[in-house]
Amino acid sequence: MIRDITIGQYYANTSIVHELDPRTKLMGVLVYVFTLFLVKNPFLYFVYLGIVLCLYYISKVPFSFMMKGLKGIIVLLIFTFCFRLICTPGTVVAQLWIFQITSEGIIKAVSLTSRIALMILGASLLSYTTTPKEMSDGMEKAFSGLERFHVPVHDMAVIVMIAFRFIPILLEEINVLMDAQAARGVEFEKCSIWKKCKNVLTLLMPLFLSTVRRSSDLAMAMEARGYSGDKPVSKMYPLVYKKNDKIAYIGMSIFALVMIFFRVYCNL
Questions:
Q1: Which of 116, 134, 53, 51 is nearest to 79 (CA)?
Q2: What does the pLDDT look like over 90-119, one tens digit per residue?
Q3: How far is CA 187 from CA 192, 206, 224, in A?
Q4: H or E element that contains 93
Q5: Cβ contacts of residue 71 below 8 Å, gap of 6+?
Q6: How far is CA 119 from the centre of its chain?
Q7: Partners of 92 in the β-ladder
Q8: Read out DSSP for 2-14?
């Protein structure tokens, strides 16, 4: 499961979504997540699922690549579903030992689990279609107004860029450690879930030491090249909105207004 995690990775391709300004995609994710949490009717989640599938199709990101992104949170989804299922009071429909399953619990479990999965799919599309450098520039440009309030926007953007660049490196490091442990007889695939968790814990310490070492090397390399967050940084390719970005903003505005209308006036 760890080997198949794709969250945070960039999928190189040529599509309309890839070519959009990173600020447009950031705003799209914010609008998507904001309206997603406004929805009360679980059937409207099919609308969001259709939107996400269409965007993945337009961005030419394979369906298998999209599903791999959910493997990393499958345990969280199962735990969330079970917790809401047995801990929500209401009309009892089934009894399982000391736990009671209610009709309200089933609805809330399905709703919350679907909401988390849709949120992860939508946010993952941002990383699949945007390089860490583009994402950093987009965040810095979009939130540049906060610098008036002494918010270190540039430093935060650099941190986000480094974090996204480290994700594939850490995954590769985990794969190397798993292969090394497997060569010593440690089993990760064909064993019980408890045994698998115990074996995965043996990777934490070497992974932590490797991360600290890479962080130290990166800091030394940045200092050797004269990097300083206090100095203004020029851009070789400044961000400029294009026609497709304006169309995307219009579409996002219409979608947000429609969902707010459904929530306020239709109570959906």
A1: 116
A2: 787 877 777 788 888 888 888 889 898 898
A3: 10, 17, 42
A4: strand 92-96
A5: 1, 4, 5
A6: 8
A7: 102
A8: GGG--TT------
* pTM across the whole model: 0.77
Tokens of residue 235, six digits:
């851009």
CA–CA separation, 106 and 88 (whole Å):
9
For the chain, how are helix, strand and coil distributed in percent, rounded to 5? 70, 5, 25
Specify the amino acid at residue 6. T
The tokens 């979009």 sit on which residue?
142
The per-residue pLDDT for range 206-261, each reduced to its tens digit, is: 888 888 888 888 888 887 877 766 666 666 677 888 999 999 999 999 999 998 88
Q: Where are the alpha helices (DSSP H) in 6-131?
A: 16-19, 22-36, 45-59, 63-71, 74-86, 103-129
The one-character DSSP state at 102 is E
HSE toward the beta carbon, residue 2, CA cutoff 13 A: 19
